[in-house]
Amino acid sequence: MVGQRAQHQPVSLLLLIRLCLLHLRASGQPHPTLDSPAEEVVSVQGVRGSSVELACSSGPAPLLVLWSFTPLGSLVPRPVAITDGAMSKVEAVASALGVVSLRNSSLVLGELREGARGHFLCQVLHVASGQLYTTYSHLMLAVLVPVSKPQVRLSNPSPVEGASVVATCAVREGTEPVTFAWQHRATRGLGEALVGVTEPLFQLDPVNRTHLGWYMCSARNSVNRLSSEGAFLDVIYGPDKPVITVEPLGLTEEGFWASEKEEVTLSCLAASNPPSHYVWLRDHTQVRTGPTYVITRAGRAHTGLYTCLARNSYLDTRTQTTIQLTIYYPPEGQPSCAVLPGPGAVTLLCTWPGGLPPAQLQWEGPQGPGPTAPSNITWSHAATQLPSGSVFTCTGQHPALAPSALCTVTLWEPLGRPTCWSTATMGDQFIMLSCEWPGGEPPATLGWLDEQQQPLGGSSSSMAVHLLQAQEDLAGQEFTCRGTHLLRTPDPHCHLRLEAPQLDVAEPRVSVFEGGEVWLECSLRQGTPPAQLLWLGPQQQQVEPGTLGFMLHPERTQLRLGIRDADPTRHRGTYQCVARNAVGNSSRSVLLEVLRYPAPPNVTIRRLTYGRHRREVQLQWAIAGPGNLTGFLVQRKASALGPGAGAWEIAASDIEPESRGRRLGGLDPGVLYAFRILALNHHTAGHPSEVKIPADPPFSAYPAVLGAAGTGMVVATVASLLVFQYAARHPETFPRLETPTTTPGLDPAQETTDAPVNVTITVTATP
């Protein structure tokens, strides 16, 4: 059998066919070719270190493919690889090109090397119309080298301002042309492209302090683009003349001032690189080194001359600046206002002694500003010129104070009328009646009266308070607060009636769908003293702020109860809004109904099959019957015995209502799973579908077997013809070859010979 003998000497056939091709090329006689006579050279580019595939136009069913390589500058081709479809051989010298392999008739060069530059020739032997043909493919491979990571070199990394600096962008290798770009980034700021600088070097002449910072360059060719690390250019300069600032800022004709007892910061800045070294002098005596001098608590002794000395240690240069600092302090306390009554007149007195400089005082009244003077000032008015409500203000201003200090004298009766209100003490044990009538000079007098207008306790100025023992019989009783003032007739008063609370609810019956949100509203119609509002749940337990699933929103006389994610088992029932104060209580009920969404339609599984390697399944389903739905829920469980068997778990829950299929992954091939699906209408789930186990997908190998058999017959016939044709033309190659005796009933391809030529035929069929 040919297939059996082909297993003994597979290399001899490759050598035989290779000699045949070389003979055909060397004989000088014309041979039929499919693509004759033009042999175009195809240009191919590859990147060093990567992979490139050289395609050979082999035509249909090549019998043999031979690749050769001619380096640049050489005329001698070198064999690279050969294949007959069943087996292939790569020459050892091909390792200089990279990692060489064959993919069908194409030559694949992995980890491409620069030595692969040159001419590649592909020779293909095949049969067409019963004749032997040879085709050739010429390819010119250019190997591109990526540009290496550039490096920035500075001729002088630390130049003195005014010198010259050359920056160079160095690249070790890379296929030309290589283009360059430069970028400059200051020590504080974003990078800035240097427009117009495209050469590998540029010059800064003269260099100045604005050139200080990081310099980066990038190199780019047709393969890649790389950027360098930053090189720092440290420009040496300074120091400039120091600038002294004082915080907080206060300016005088002589210099600066600061307030007593506050923190004063003197800052000195002299532009310099490296940074300046600073020394502070006060009245020619050194007090501090460093850029800032902080006076933690300024005192009067800190007044004087302050000098900042700046020095550049690298250049050994110095500069200095001197300022005058004066410490201000205000008078003690506040201005003092007083009214000195006299016969037919009123004298206003304002004093505020001390301070540096002295405080400036000024009176102001209803008719406008009054006199002004430092430290002490008086102002007199006739009594007939002062109507009730006259206000006089003395304002004291000092540089060390902001805002200004002042005192006020008001000659008027209290505004409006007394104001009454009531509050309950802790635990509603007592009721506190309060009455207020602020203002007035002198202050008003207030007192409480009962329903019989009898005094309750004594009187007090501006505000009156009376305590009552809390009891229910106080509901409906009225109390009066009366106020008296010498500039006011008749006496004003206010009334206060104690009342039990009264409630209103927005709706006595409220409904909500399951999972929704609803608000129950309750408002206080009346109640004195102010009542406390609260909600009781269906189990008569008070709903506290922060209770899970509930929200309390108080607003003035209202208390709203919010319920989120409504659940029939937890939230359905009667809620009570309760109001309580020291004289009584009241309540109103609200019935909450939690409705379920209608049941969605039923679902049936139409198809459930395993996917690749049994790690996923393809699920298809259909719905039956009317009904609303918002999605689907797929569940799975391990149907085999073992831990977790029989427990349903969610396989997919985010399925749109329009979907009728889903691919489910994450399966263990060693576990047998069962699946079911349910339709969802919001929080209402439909009846589960029938439980199904995935089935294996159908498989058919008939087309693959038929195709492989047909291909094998064609290849075997062509190979046999090649061998006998070569033996007939070159009998000297086989001197002991004799004509064998044909056995009746045997195929000629199965006849035995004394010197057999083994042929190995490998057939690969793709269904």
From TrEMBL:
InterPro entries: FN3_dom (IPR003961), FN3_sf (IPR036116), Ig-like_dom (IPR007110), Ig-like_dom_sf (IPR036179), Ig-like_fold (IPR013783), Ig_sub (IPR003599), Ig_sub2 (IPR003598), IgSF_CEA-related (IPR052598)
Gene3D superfamilies: Immunoglobulins
Keyword DNA-binding: no
Keyword Glycoprotein: yes
Signal sequence coordinates: 1-28
Ranges of residues in domain Fibronectin type-III: 599-699
Transmembrane segments: 701-724
Ig-like domain ranges (all copies): 150-227, 242-324, 399-485, 501-593
Keyword terms: Disulfide bond, Glycoprotein, Immunoglobulin domain, Membrane, Signal, Transmembrane, Transmembrane helix
PANTHER family hit by this protein: CARCINOEMBRYONIC ANTIGEN-RELATED CELL ADHESION MOLECULE 8, V-SET AND IMMUNOGLOBULIN DOMAIN CONTAINING 10 LIKE 2
Protein name per UniProt: V-set and immunoglobulin domain containing 10 like 2
Organism: Aotus nancymaae (Ma's night monkey)
